Amino acid sequence: MLHRHARAACAAFAAVGALVLAGLPGTASADPAAVAAPSAADTLGVGKASPELLRAMQRDLGVTGQQARVRLANEAEAGAVAGLLQNALGRDFAGAWVQGGDSGTLTVATTDAADVPSIESKGARALVVPHTLRQLDTALAKLDRAAAATVATDVPVRFVNVRTNQVTLQALHTAAGNALVAAAGVDPSLVRTEKSAQQPRPLYDIRGGDAYYMNGSGRCSVGFAVTKGAQQGFATAGHCGRPGTTTSGYNQVAQGSFQASTFPGRDTAWVAANSNWTSTPYVKGSSGNVQVTGSTQAAVGASVCRSGSTTGWHCGTIQQHNTSVTYPEGTISGVTRTSVCAEPGDSGGSFISGSQAQGVTSGGSGNCSSGGTTFYQPINPLLQGYALTLKTTSDDPGPGPGEPGGTWAVGTVYATGAQVTYGGTTYRCLQGHQAQEGWAPPNVPALWQAV
User: Fold this and answer.
1) Which of 59, 245, 310, 379 is the most exposed place for a label (fewest CB within 10 A)?
2) Could you please report the per-residue DSSP string of 151-166?
């Protein structure tokens, strides 16, 4: 583990160059009198992306400010289309990802060639592959069980790689990967072993990215401000503390204590703050605050930025979701692998794509001088597991009294494919998120599809 022992609104978005995906929910009608539904970029607050975040994207991704805005818009639209197609393809679905300097190409994989016209009709590139995403997820689960039984630190990273349509094992030596596949009883054609010297470890060390101290010594970083009823607090990494561990803030003032923590298995925790601290819907930048407007999960290939108390802002891309990592202390599953760097003390800190919260920093390898790989614990399962509500900003007051109801509810975490009712209509979720005020299904076609 890396444990730090030390005392130590942006301009309106211009849509020029944004990805055009035929049939995207919310696309304007040809009738000029019709009122267009909000685009995915509008729903996810792309136009509110902080100048701080845009500058970090320019530095770390080698893009201009305008290219960063276009990229965020393309990623928002692509996520909506990918969710629509995942629901439509059902068991045939084999993953989706964006690529290109502006994230202008969405690829959707399927195991059935008959799905190609449907995929291409939505403006996406179709790829026919042999294995479904469900098969790959099942294989990864078997490998994880085998790794847990043997504490397989010589095969520390395992993930579903939708680009290659295989489960990738990153092992210190090939023989270790082969032995794990045999022990798990997994079909070798589903797996690819890569030799890697990386040995991830937790990045030990109420605004996202701020430092906090555990029991007056070790340091970690705030992930995202949350509430639980009237209680203020924040989400962070489980390896930073156990229930009852006391915390002090970046200013060394008494702050609160850990209420729940899971590590290994997951890397989740939340801290309840005392009455001197108030949750705010921001993440710390190097010279200002970055707004948090929701928690819609970004696609593989999308840009993502991280804030931590050691290294501040750094950006990269999402490489894989559903990754398993074996640290010396044990295995955690369901994390996301990124190309963003991090260092000791950044643990627990915020990962954000545009204005959408993605997760809290778990661990990784490398550093911010030579580059590295960092894993984050996705925020939505954390919120759901502890019944927390993400603190967000919104210009929309939400549904007024008397608007139709149903099973949809603010604060609920919905996964892709989940179904709700609202106003007498049934809707299917397109992208995982925690429901916010103003995000009722009819209002956000980037997140919900009527069925």
Assistant:
1) 59
2) T-TTS-EEEEETTTTE
